[in-house]
Amino acid sequence: MPKNKAALDREQKREEILGVARRLFLDAGYELTSVGRIAEQAGVAPNTIYWYFADKDALLVAVLDSLVNEAARDFQKHARGPLDAQLLWLLRAFDQAHGIIATVHARAALSESIGAWHANFHRTLESALVALLHGHGVPRPEQGHASRVITFVLEGLLAHPSSSKERRALLGWLVSTVTHRRA
Amino acid sequence: MPKNKAALDREQKREEILGVARRLFLDAGYELTSVGRIAEQAGVAPNTIYWYFADKDALLVAVLDSLVNEAARDFQKHARGPLDAQLLWLLRAFDQAHGIIATVHARAALSESIGAWHANFHRTLESALVALLHGHGVPRPEQGHASRVITFVLEGLLAHPSSSKERRALLGWLVSTVTHRRA
DNA sequence: ACCTGAACACCGTTCAAGT
DNA sequence: ACCTGAACACCGTTCAAGT
Questions:
Q1: What are the DSSP calls for B13-82, one per residue?
Q2: How many other β-carbons are positioned within 10 Å of the β-carbon of residue B66?
Q3: Which residues of B touch A99 (CB under 8 A)?
């Protein structure tokens, strides 16, 4: 524990601002949440935010990290069973974040920090999916293609309205198509 | 030809504003293109735009319509041959619009007009893809799932950087997987 | 080091006034 | 009917000034 009192206080305040931002981004969306409103709910002046975060995009990146870290932790605990059930679990874990995900895609080209976060996220997700597919018996030369297709389908299902029944049907079909593929 | 001179003039001016908006949206992106800048390049005052379009979103919807209509026209002319080649053609046709597509996904939940356009676009694309799959021998009960997966993969390839070599490989694999599926 | 009030340059949009 | 200058309410961000 290398942190002194001052550093702890700073961390604590940063976390509070982050928590407010996370709630507002998830509830109202990134675009409709102004820095001023985050500051207001955190009980500080708008420009105080900039003492803790470089800009509004840095706030989004920190929120994204917290969401992904939580999902990764819970996935190891709860997501067992067949492949399509695991994918369905992933989908539900990120469902609340679908607005944020759309924002990431729109801003990846506009903001360097979000672009970098997005590229790194896809690298991480890809290797996790490849490991998952490997464990479910998908032959190595197909793992790359299958993981990309699954990634895009997950993103598509998140971005577009779909009932959990439709999701189950589509993911079931996709997984059986990919894992029972002919040579 | 029911249009009189005045109506023609109006149409012409609308088209000019629309052309400027299209160029700027494609070049710089929706978010980085201000209504003021469109007006400037069209040679009118900023608020004149609002005589021809309800708001900035209506401008985007009109640009989207022009892009989709052109692509639909060209597709019937040029996109022949095997299924993956046709999908590759579609991808190239919308490549320049990848920034706009990301914006549509981000704003679909925020703007009623863009949300409606987006839902309608997917209905149209889905039925076109189903017809295409039917023509390529995909059995009817699979057409719905296959068309959604293909839609999501096309969107994914547009949204994320990918070389034409990667695209060819992935689409080839996907089409062969989907069309040679076991019962 | 941390926080603020005030300001800056911009944004989409509206409105009263002109023709 | 069409167009404009001026204004409105907001935005993210900066900066000089305070402690």
A1: HHHHHHHHHHHHHHHH-STT--HHHHHHHHTS-GGGHHHH-SSHHHHHHHHHHHHHHHHHHHHHHH--SS
A2: 15
A3: 106, 109
pLDDT, chain B, mean:
94
DSSP state of B1: -
Backbone angles phi, psi at B166, to 5 degrees: -60, -40
On whether the CB atoms of residues B36 and B46 are closer than 8 A, the answer is yes
Alpha-carbon distance values, A13 to A37, A38, A54, B120 (Å): 16, 13, 15, 45
B123–chain A Cβ distance below 8 A for any pair: no
Is pLDDT of A3 > 60?
Answer: no
Residues of chain A contacting B142 with CB distance shorter than 8 Å: 173
Structure-token match 């524990």, residue found: A1
Between CA A55 and C1' C5 the distance (Å) reads: 20
For the stretch A89-127, pLDDT in tens is 999 999 999 999 999 999 999 999 999 999 999 999 999
B48 contact to strand C (CB, 7 A limit): no
* Shortest Cα–Cα distance, A63 to chain B (Å): 17
Q: Is pLDDT at A145 greater than 90 in this prediction?
A: yes
**In terms of Cα–Cα distance, which of B21, B1, B7 is closest to B100?**
B21
- Residue B174's pLDDT band (boundaries 50, 70, 90)? very high
DSSP, residue by residue, B144-168: HHHHHHHHHHHHHHHHS---HHHHH
pLDDT digits (tens, 9 = 90+) for B97-121: 999 999 999 999 999 999 999 999 9
Tokens of A93: 């874990």
Q: How far apart are CA B150 and CA B133, in angstroms?
A: 10
Residue type, B161: P
Structural tokens at position B156: 């994914």
Cα A89 from Cα B153, distance rounded (Å): 20
Residue A180 clears pLDDT 70, i.e. is over it: yes
Instruction: Kindly tell me if the per-residue pLDDT of A43 is higher than 60.
Output: yes
